[in-house]
Each structure stands twice: as C-alpha cells, then as structure tokens.
Here is the input.
Amino acid sequence: MRLKTTLLAIITLLFCFTACKKDEKKEPTPPPTTGTISINGKDYKTVQIGNQTWTSESYAGDGGLAYGPTVKPEYGKYYTYTEVKAIALPAGWRLPTIDDYKTMGQAVGINFTAGAQNTEAAKKLISKTGWKNATGSNASGLNLFPSNMIYNGQPAIDGDVAEFWTASGSTFSIMEAGTNGSLLNVQFFSNSNLPEYRFPVRFVRD
Here is the structure.
C-alpha cells in the first residue's frame, strides 16, 4: 500500500512538472510598448525598443514627395537631406544617428560586428506585408515598409528595400538578400546626402 502511494505521488509530481514546463513554453511574448507623438500638427505612432522610443510611422509633414503613381500612405514622404535637417521636432526627439540605429538593431538581435548580412533578426523590424519575398514578423513594432528611395524625381522602385535618413546624411538600409530574398542584409550607405536622393525618415528619443 505504501509503495502504491509513493508511486502515485511520484507520478503526480512528474505530471505537474511536465504541465508546468508546457505552460512556461506557452507564455506569450508581451507586445511592444506603444504611444503617440505630435510632430508639426500630425500624430505619429511610437514604439519602445530597448531604451529608445522610435516613431513607428514614416514622417509625412510639409514638403517632401509622396510615393507614386499609386498612393501608399504607409511609406510617408520622401525628403532630401536638407529637408530632413530643417524639420522641427518636439523636445527630446531627433534624427537618429548611425549609433542609434545600431543600438536599436542590437536590441532585436542584429549582430553588426558580423556585417549583418543574411540575417533573420531584421525580420523583427520590417512590416508583415509589402515585401516581394521577405516575410517580416514586425515583432519590434517598428513596422518598416519597403519604400526604397526616390532618385532624380523618378518613381521609387519599392518592394525589397527599406532605407531611412540618419543625422549625418548617411542612410540605414534593410534589403532583401540572396537569390530569393528570404533573408535580409542590414547596412549603412555614406553617399546618400546628394540633392538627387530622397528617403523616408523616422525619429528617435532616448
């Protein structure tokens, strides 16, 4: 009788341990902390990534050029470097630096010391829709769409590149990689601040 009782206790403990481990695995990932910020009379959604707060929508204020020939408001507008430097921002907000983008990328698991090529982690930053091949999760809430750029006033060739201004006039880029574009390359371009180039812009606050 005592043996049966002991075996029953052991089985009960094992069942409880297994069930508890399963419950732990099912624990949902908390959603990103979000908010809004008003910039020049228009509200923009924001998201917390690590110790930074980012606008999770591209700026669409005065000036700039809209995407064409169809309307894609999720892209915001495309600005020259001169235009983005002139945008008046609320206290504490700024154009992100290269280091800001690296800090944000590292918070979602991007390894810049390895060149950030063919990375899965960047899928946490991109939108779930709009990309030609890559499947974004937008787990970070940043929601970067593949708006690409406008060069010399020509329509943007969108679908496989998300590229945004930095404070120094370089750009932060996420682009589909390889032959099928299922993975992503993350890099910075230093020759973007010519008047022929227009890119979307996001803002950051510590």
Summary: Residues 34-205 form one domain. The chain has three helices and eleven strands. The longest helix spans residues 2-25. The chain has one domain: 34-205.
